[in-house]
Amino acid sequence: MDINKIREQFPILSIKIDGKSYYYFDNAATTQKPQKVIDTVNEIYSLQNSNIHRGAHYLSNLLTDRFEQARIKVQHFINAEHREEIIFTYGTTSSINLLSYSFGEAFVGEGDEVITTELEHHSNIVPWQILCERKKAKLKYIPLAKDGALDIDRLESLITPKTKLVTIAQVANSTGSVNDVKKVVKIAHSHNIPVLIDAAQSIQHMKVDVQELDCDFLAFSGHKIYGPTGIGVLYGKKEWLEKLPPFMGGGEMIDRVTMERTTYNCLPFKFEAGTPNYVGAIGLGAAIDFVNEVGIEEIASYEKSLYDYALQKAEENTNLLIIGPETGKISVLSFVHKSIPSGDLGFFLDKWGIAIRTGNHCAQPAMDFFGVPGTARLSIAMYNTREEVDYFFEKLKEAELFFGV
Ligand code: PLP
Asked: Which of 30, 89, 121 to mutate to test the pocket of ligand 1 (most atoms within 8 A of CB)?
């Protein structure tokens, strides 16, 4: 991987703020966009914009075609068996809400159970809480173990005949831990229970193959994999999606509407009510092309060596308490400084052009487990470098001097 060539493709990486370079380590929140994605979005708005699907004219047909091509790119990228298993949504949150509503309507009743984990982002907890409240069902959690990793072995004992669905993130945004989702699928499937994987923090860092994982549903956001904001994906096995009712009603999701009743469109359109974010979807297709050109395996191995380097530097600083398990983490370095509050540290580093995120990372149950209100989180992407990591730790040392540590 030629890191300089990659960096050249991200215009934002060369901006200066107050004359200083910008060191972007907030990639778990959102990734920056390569020129290819920017050009694609720009080209559509400049030269091709038109609403898709219902047009009888050139631009509408062109963009309909590009939109459906983007769907096929996503299909191949995650190795889904069928094109219609890819539903465009507005992001991971939107995908999970779609599924929790729709699956919940069809399959969850009073006294039933859904299992999530203590390590989830709020977007894989709250929609299930809302569903369970609506249906008088129960939400259970795979707990965190002492070592800071999920205790996946507890899943078996949490499952009962009332369990309807299990959901888990492949990579935790608050700690970077990689969860053994394959094992979760195996256990759940041995009880005929479907599994949703939240791939918001894995899709950009590792090969995600839905057939190999054998998951029933999978969600991710375009903006975290170098694509535009406002676009996301819900993958679902065709046999499941066919059984689920629509989430939102409106245009495009219908087959026939009379004043008495409506019959619904086929997959995937049944779940894509209204004008979709076709610009975002086509932009996501361009982001996937970009990732494919670099190679997801190359990205994974480059990021691993950079992550290991950052982790080692963090471990050398005895003032840092690293959050999460010791091993089995990628991309996210989450820590608490023994003497400097995370917010103050973030503020200090920002003055030196370093962008990290501080706070609870929308994972308050996990923060409660670790006994901290929040952490400082450095998260890496394919364009980060060792020099940037060195700069970060140099400025961290300066912060310690500044705060009198
Ligand atoms: N799940 C995980 C693990 C995340 O890290 C995030 C965002 O940080 C989300 C879900 C929600 O993603 P979005 O805000 O793009 O819907």
From this structure: 121
